[in-house]
């Protein structure tokens, strides 16, 4: 690090990168700017965020629209003169009451519970800001909740369901679809304009950021970093068991590499095991005149291709087949790179990790389509629809691999790179 006085005057604070553990000097940012790590390009700080007051207003708007988006019909079909409506809650309830409660619970968590909890958390944060309280646990919880909010994926699932059912019955979109689309747009806006980790600086101003005045000490006493609240500091505190904890959020520091790897390997291997029955068992059954036809993940894609819906087939194939399998393969490769000290391109390794971390949640698309189809055509008519045994295994695989990528510590890859460049 350059230590000339002229350079240090331009630095606002010093921070460690949570992805590669590099020590980075960050200057004062103007509105709309963001600072990224020069080594791994991870976003360290951003001024492109809205105030908590505005975010809370959006969260309130979402909660007002939620009842219309979740319980009212979004689309309907005409089955032999009988109108059948499809709603998010109706599909989940039908799935739960017809023998698939665990699968229904997975859909409920990501489509209803997580979005509502996230919005409530933002509103409570704003209330804490008004009454000048410091919601340590809430700030930690909201960061964990964010990846599990999948309202945008449900919007795509709605389109896939419409394509899937249009050959069986007359399809009609209801007016409440406007509320659902508006909710999805507002949720996306809220995600883009709120940064839970930067809110720590607003609620805990007494925990000062590391300043250039401490630069002379950095070589002798490297600063520490907390992954839970993205806080860079000089010295940790100790809990009752004499373990090092973050002075700002009280989270445990420096988890041993063996523990971190175990927490990644365990859900990953369990998720890979779940992938086998998820791909070989039928994920859904369609009954025509009481004659069942089972569809696996890949046969569902083939059905869309035969219908001429090539784009929908591509979306379903990517979300249901390609993403889960490639995610497992890439995670195995990254973990093997750590265990066997493979000195491959760190740039590509990090790029692969960021890609699977971003797209992994989209695999829930199939379960959302199943929930909507249960609501639409499970009425004992000429056409009937039921969830297959593969649905549970597929949902469990998605959940487990998401947990694995969350627990993965990319700094272990950078340690190999640092040893290579020395």
From TrEMBL:
Pfam families: PqiA. It comes from the Bacteria. It is a multi-pass membrane protein. GO terms for cellular component: plasma membrane. The chain crosses the membrane at residues 55-82, 102-125, 145-163, 175-192, 265-288, 308-335, 355-376, 382-405. Keywords: Cell inner membrane, Cell membrane, Membrane, Transmembrane, Transmembrane helix. Its main location: membrane. It is found in: Cell inner membrane. InterPro entries: PqiA-like (IPR007498), PqiA-like_proteobact (IPR005219), PqiA-PqiB_transport (IPR051800). Belongs to the PqiA family. This is PqiA family integral membrane protein. It comes from [Actinobacillus] rossii.
């Amino acid at each position: 690090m350059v230590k000339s006085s002229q350079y240090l005057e331009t630095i606002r604070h010093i921070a460690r990168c949570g992805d590669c553990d590099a020590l980075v000097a960050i200057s004062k940012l103007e509105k709309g700017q963001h600072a990224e790590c020069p080594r791994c390009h991870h976003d360290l700080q951003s001024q492109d965020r809205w105030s908590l007051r505005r975010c809370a207003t959006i969260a309130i708007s979402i909660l007002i629209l939620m009842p219309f988006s979740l319980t009212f019909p979004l689309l309907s079909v005409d089955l032999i003169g009988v109108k059948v409506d499809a709603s998010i809650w109706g599909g989940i309830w039908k799935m739960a009451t017809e023998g698939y409660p665990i699968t229904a619970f997975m859909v409920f968590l990501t489509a209803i519970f997580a979005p509502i909890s996230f919005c409530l958390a933002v509103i409570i944060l704003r209330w804490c800001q008004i009454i000048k309280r410091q919601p340590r646990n809430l700030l930690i919880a909201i960061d964990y909740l964010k990846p599990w909010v999948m309202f945008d994926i449900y919007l795509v699932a709605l389109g896939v369901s419409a394509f899937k059912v249009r050959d069986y019955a007359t399809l009609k979109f209801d007016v409440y679809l406007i509320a659902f689309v508006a909710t999805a747009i507002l949720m996306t806006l809220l995600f883009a304009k709120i940064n839970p980790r930067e809110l720590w600086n607003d609620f805990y101003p007494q925990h000062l950021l590391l300043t250039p005045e401490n630069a002379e000490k950095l070589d002798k006493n490297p600063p520490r970093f907390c992954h839970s609240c993205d806080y860079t500091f000089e010295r940790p505190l100790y809990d009752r068991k004499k373990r090092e904890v973050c002075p700002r959020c009280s989270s445990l520091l420096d988890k041993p590499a063996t523990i971190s790897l175990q927490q990644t390997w365990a859900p990953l291997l369990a998720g890979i095991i779940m992938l086998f029955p998820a791909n070989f068992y039928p994920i859904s059954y369609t009954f025509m005149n009481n004659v069942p036809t089972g569809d696996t993940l890949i046969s569902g894609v083939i059905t869309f291709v035969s219908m001429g819906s090539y784009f929908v087939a591509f979306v379903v194939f990517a979300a249901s087949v390609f993403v889960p399998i490639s995610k497992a393969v890439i995670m195995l490769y990254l973990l093997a790179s750590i265990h066997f000290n493979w000195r491959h391109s760190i740039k590509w390794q990090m790029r692969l990790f960021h890609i699977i971390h971003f797209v992994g949640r989209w695999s829930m698309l199939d379960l959302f389509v199943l929930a909507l189809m249960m609501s639409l055509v499970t009425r004992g008519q000429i056409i009937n629809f039921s969830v297959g045994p593969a649905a549970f295994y597929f949902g469990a695989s998605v959940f487990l691999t998401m947990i694995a990528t969350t627990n993965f510590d990319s700094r272990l890859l950078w340690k190999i790179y640092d040893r290579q460049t020395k």
